[in-house]
Amino acid sequence: MVSDRQSIDVTRQQRVAVVSFRDELDLKDTAEATLALSRALTDTSTAGTLLDLSGLTFADSTQLNVILRAHAEHQDALRPFVLAGPYRSGVARLFEVTGVTDVLDLSDTVEDGIRRVHLLCDTARASAPEDTRH
């Protein structure tokens, strides 16, 4: 899925759904952002979701709410959800002021984030009860 403005897109890298938010996102982008994250959540060809915020220059509380809801939905589905930077100053400040840095799984780069998703998958598999492992 790619929007006309191309501020949000979804790709796959190393069996990870990568949702990229770029430029400025606000209230008008909520439905598209929610849809992209929902599609990533239900993509059975991938092991988890990485939200790439390295190109995001502005996000408001509406987008933060979208991210937090996606985080909760991924937790409910037992599916890794990792955010990746580097985070621009406005985005980093939004995370710091709201305290979500203690809640969300943050990585410094997309590459680190992809590794983190795979690590979380491996950890979940290792801790699963014996009869549920494949």
Automatic annotation (TrEMBL):
InterPro entries: STAS_dom, STAS_dom_sf. Residues 6-117 form the STAS domain. Pfam families: STAS. One of its GO terms (molecular function) is anti-sigma factor antagonist activity. CDD domains: STAS_anti-anti-sigma_factors. PANTHER family: ANTI-SIGMA FACTOR ANTAGONIST TM_1081-RELATED, ANTI-SIGMA FACTOR ANTAGONIST TM_1081-RELATED-RELATED. This is STAS domain-containing protein.
